[in-house]
Write a structure and sequence with these properties.
- With 150 residues, the protein is an alpha/beta fold.
- The protein has one domain: Rossmann fold, CATH 3.40.50.
- Helix content is 36%, strand content 19%.
- The protein contains five helices and six strands.
- Strand 3 (54-57), helix 3 (66-76) and strand 4 (81-86) form a beta-alpha-beta unit.
Length: 150
C-alpha cells in the first residue's frame, strides 16, 4: 500500500464488520478512522460536519440507503471520496452505486484481500473495483456526475 494519508469515516449498520474494518485500517498510522456510524442519515451529517477524505459506505443501511447517502454526501461534502464496501454484488447495484460519483466498490467477502488496496487507490485519486467484480465493465457510467475531479 502506498503512503496515502487520510481521515476516514466507516459507515455500516453491522457493528462487528465496522470493528473488523477499523482493525485493518488502524494498523496503518497514515489512515485515521475519525468516526464510525451505523445509518445513512448519520453518515451524511458526519460527512458534512467532519469533511473526511474518505467514507467507506455500505449500500444496505437504515434511514437512508448507502446510495441515497452518497448522493447527499456529494452535495454537502463534495471533496470527500466514497468507497462502497457492501455485501451487494449485483452488477446493477454496483453500477448504481458508482454512478453516485463513488470512486470504488469492494464486496465484503473481498474486504480482507482488497480493502487496503481500495483505500489506497481511492485516496490516490484512482478508481477501484474488487477482484470478484473485475469481469464487469463499470466504466460507462462511473463518476458520471464528475465528482472528486475525476
Amino acid at each position: 500500500m502506498s503512503a496515502a494519508q487520510g481521515r476516514l469515516i466507516i459507515v455500516d449498520d453491522f457493528e462487528p464488520f465496522r470493528r473488523f474494518v477499523t482493525s485493518i485500517l488502524q494498523k496503518h498510522p497514515e489512515l485515521q478512522v475519525i468516526c464510525e456510524v451505523s445509518d445513512g442519515f448519520e453518515a451524511v451529517q458526519k460527512a458534512k460536519d467532519l469533511k473526511p477524505d474518505l467514507i467507506l459506505l455500505d449500500v444496505g443501511l437504515p434511514k437512508l440507503t448507502g446510495i441515497e447517502a452518497a448522493e447527499q454526501i456529494g452535495k454537502v461534502a463534495p471533496r470527500s471520496k466514497i468507497l462502497f464496501v457492501s455485501q451487494e454484488s449485483s452488477a446493477d447495484t454496483v453500477r448504481e452505486a458508482l454512478s453516485t460519483g463513488a470512486c470504488g466498490y469492494v464486496v465484503k467477502t473481498d474486504a480482507r484481500s482488497d480493502l487496503l488496496a481500495a483505500v489506497s487507490a481511492v485516496l490516490n485519486g484512482k478508481r477501484f473495483v474488487c477482484r470478484s467484480l473485475a469481469a464487469h465493465d463499470f466504466t460507462d457510467n462511473t463518476n458520471s456526475r464528475g465528482r472528486h475531479g475525476m
